Amino acid sequence: MLVRRFLFGLLFLCWTAFAHAGAGEEDFAAALVAAREEAYVTPAAALARLEALKQGRGGRELGLVLVETSRASYWLGRKQAALAAAQRAEQLGREGHDDDLLAKAMLSHGLVLSRLVHDQDAARRLIDKAAALAAAGGDLHLKTRALVAQGLLADQEGRTDDALDFMGQAATLARSGDDPDALAMALREQARLLAGIGDAAPALKLVDELVAIATSRKIPAQLAHARLTESATAARAGNPKRAEKALQAAVELLEKLEARERLAVPLANLAELYVQGRRFGEAARAAEAALRIAREVGDENGEKLASYQLGITYIFFRNVAEGRRMVDAALAGLKDDERYVRMLLDYAHALNQVGWGDVALTVYEKAGSVSLAAWRKEKQLSYEALQRAWAYQKKQAELTALHHESVLKAAELQTVKRIRTLWVALSATALVGALLVALLYRRVKKANGSLKVKNEQLFRQSTRDSLTGLFNRHYFYEHVVPQYHANPGRDGKPGGVFLLMDVDHFKSINDRFGHSAGDVVLKNVAARLAASLRGEDVLIRWGGEEFLAYLPGVTLDEARQLCARLLAAVSGTTIDADGQQLTVTVSIGFCPRPAGPAENGPDWEKLVHLADLCLYLAKTAGRNQAFGVADANALTPAAIAAADADLGQASADGIVDLVNVKTM
Questions:
Q1: Strands in 126-184 per DSSP E
Q2: Range of the domain at 449
Q3: Quick one: DSSP state of residue 594?
Q4: Burial class (CB in 10 A: 0-12, 13-18, 19+), 640
Q5: Least confident interval from 60-69, 70-79, 240-249, 440-449
Q6: Which of 243, 230, 214 is nearest to 515 (CA)?
Q7: Same domain, 601 and 657
Q8: Coil, strand, or helix at residue 578?
Q9: Same domain as 386, residue 489
Q10: Per the domain annotation, does 505 fall within a domain?
Q11: Is residue 226 part of a domain?
Q12: Same domain? 429 vs 488
């Protein structure tokens, strides 16, 4: 009886110990997931959590903590600490013959080598080995992370198609295993890549799924990361309203998490969106907050971005000298930023808006030269990659030839039968060599084709608006402005007209029916405007709901007739927007160019500015009509100054002659 009780007691103690051990493993895994999600948003807090989690652990558990420690150190920019943690985790994986741990450590190590050390060859070797180990195991999250790492590396090397393929595989795998954290990781990168190549609709759809996952997981750091991804994707997709809303949500979450090391850049980006919406006061406050936080936490990149945005607001507030000083200093440290060319264009636009046209033109020219240099550099890198592949194949062929030459010399001492066998082997080798050359030729041809397609994609992305398909401001500065200065006219005659068009009550459409309805309206209006213009006319999406058209060689009478057609084309039939039948109208302002040589009259910026003033007059006069300057040759500097001060009064005083056009 005593023995039986002893045995039951021993079994109960064993079961209790096992249950507590299981609970401890679950707590450890949950803490590790939380630290992983915190690493990007609050890396300092994640490191503190990981340091506490590391105490008293060894073997596999210590290795897993070190892997996440390496990632958190990476996000803080601590290169040596990130390398040391990853290498120690690799050592533990090898000592314990733990392939999963080894693969995770290699992925973290490869990330540091690629992004902080810039050793792409070593990073590729580590990531490829890790992917092979992950594929042989059963850890779905690890397999997904390996595919994402391969995609990031491909994207960094300019292989966009390969990168998208890896991200698609990662998302499919994560969905098949019902792992929301792995899926969120894959969706973030897949959406970023799709937005980068202009596929706005699928990118935003992936972002919707990402935000839904993060919301359901109830991990604040994960949701903040998702909102940041949503904002960046919406901005690239040409949806500034959604980008602003998502960024404001992300900033609120970061403030609640006290993630000051991550706040500066989002605040600077929010300031940029406010500037685009011409809300300069809000932009200045956001930029000042970003600058203050960046200096407190030592975020150099955030400090440069915040200084740039604050300088832009100073320019719009007419403190041009101080604004230029801040912007020039910031841009000097942002030359490697992917948005550098766009920032130059925004800088030039701000200067032009406040009347510094000559300086703005210099900045526009600089943006063009930087953009061209970047395109040439990318082309050169692609060519060098092909050259390396060719050199590798050539070296392999030379080694093969040397090997067979030694075999031939040894075979000369053998019997005739061995000699015949050798000749057969040499024939086979020659055939293999020919096949290798043919294969290499096909690879080079395919690479050239891919390079051509990518160049065409880059040109389309840089010159076309993703929503409407119309040309954008970059195309205008690169192609229309030179055409304007060349002054070819039509049938050899000089002249031409600038039209500035704005959708009436567009904000109320967005507010009442949603941004998707607003997008439908913009697409329809763009299509109707384009259908009413000639083949040689250029239609630009100037910004938001505003469109600019340049009509070379058009006379004033032709411009008046065209305005009537445009007004009728837009308002003639309703637009079906998400089941709502909307009657949409536009207001138009136009200004012809003088008939004389371009260098003797006002420049194109002043003509567009006068068209903008006429557009404002059309708005205040009741909308759905056009106002324009009647006599471009009368646009003396004094007349332009009077129009700039008060166009309506200048017209009433007879200084500027205006015409009014309404629907036909």
A1: none
A2: 372-453
A3: P
A4: buried
A5: 440-449
A6: 243
A7: yes
A8: coil
A9: no
A10: yes
A11: no
A12: no
437 and 491 fall within a common domain:
no
Q: Which of 453, 481, 508 is the last residue of a domain?
A: 453
Q: Are the beta carbons of 223 and 253 closer than 8 angstroms? A: yes
For residue 633, the 8-state DSSP code is G
Counted domains in the chain: 2
**Which 3 state secondary structure label does DSSP give 363?**
helix
Cα separation of 533 and 519, whole Å?
22
Tell which of 397, 422, 453 closes a domain. Answer: 453
Mean pLDDT of the chain: 80
pTM over 0.70: no
Q: Is residue 427 part of a domain?
A: yes
Q: HSE on the CB side for 504, CA within 13 Å? A: 22
d(CA 549, CA 555): 14
Looking at the structure, tell me whether residues 595 and 654 fall in a common domain: yes
* Tens-place pLDDT, residues 15-58: 333 333 443 566 777 777 777 777 777 787 778 888 888 888 88
Residue with tokens 């766009």: 342
Length of the chain counted residue by residue: 664
* Whether the predicted pLDDT of 334 surpasses 70: yes
Q: How far apart are alpha carbons 2 and 405 in whole angstroms? A: 85
Contact 634, 657 (CB under 8 A): yes
**Distance between CA atoms of 462 and 458, rounded to whole angstroms?**
6
The pLDDT score that the predictor gives to residue 1 is 42
In the three-class reduction of DSSP (H, G, I as helix; E, B as strand; rest coil), residue 659 is classed as: strand
443 & 498 share domain: no
Q: Do 504 and 645 fall within a single domain?
A: yes
Alpha helix (H) ranges present in 42-139?
Answer: 43-54, 59-75, 79-95, 99-112, 120-136
Tokens of 371: 């953009």
431 and 552 in one domain? no
> In this structure, what are the phi and psi dihedrals at residue 338, rounded to the nearest 5 degrees?
-65, -20
Ramachandran region, residue 118 (left: φ > 0; alpha: ψ -120 to 50; beta: rest): left
Pairing of strands 625-629, 586-592: parallel
* pLDDT tens sequence across 471-497: 998 899 888 888 777 665 544 455 789
- 94-150, pLDDT tens digit by residue? 888 888 888 888 988 888 887 787 888 888 888 888 889 888 888 888 888 889 888
204 in a structural domain:
no
156: its two tokens: 């960094």
